[in-house]
Amino acid sequence: MEVFAxxxxxxxxxxxxxxxxxxxxxxxxxxxTYFRMPAAERKVLDGAAKxxxxxxxxxxxxxxxxxxxxxxxxxxxxxxxxxxxxxxWNSPRTVSRPLDPADAGDPLVWAVSCFFIGSRHRRKGNSHxxxxxxxxxxxxxxxxxxxxxxxxxxxxxxxxxxxxxxMRVFEAAGFREVARRKEGRPLMRLEF
Length: 192
Hints:
Blueprint: E1 4-8, H1 14-21, H2 39-43, H3 47-60, E2 65-70, E3 73-82, E4 109-117, H4 126-140, E5 145-148, H5 167-172, E6 176-180, E7 186-191
Parallel strand pairs: 4-5
Antiparallel strand pairs: 1-2, 2-3, 3-4, 5-7, 6-7
């Protein structure tokens, strides 16, 4: 069995993050900025500017997520942290908006907002492994709860929308549905 390890994404791990995301920045050059800035701002940035934005965020700290490794090589990423760190995830127009608006600014209410698994490592249970690492990181960081807004079903395992994760992965980790604002996109929560 492959040896899996996961670590918070600190500046010292930037090279591994960059390696995992590749030259184009994963998910059409997003560099995991989708929930971090308004669409109007994000759309005018090229890939290099988005990359610089996330690099600055990582250098500023605290870690914006967790990197997963197999046999010492970076293979998975999960963006996890306080809801306030991903302001677009809290927008009143999104299916991921908090039940209580105060949760958007509560440093103890966390969100799992994005996943990226390297193509060679998909369909091997690595979403479960990196989510477990995210839960551990949130708990160790003092989070009171952690929320997600995954897809209930995807047409294929390669569906781009799976960057938010699969409902079955969250269910297996103990998350429960707390709201459904759109068919197929439950808001789920795990209390600590």
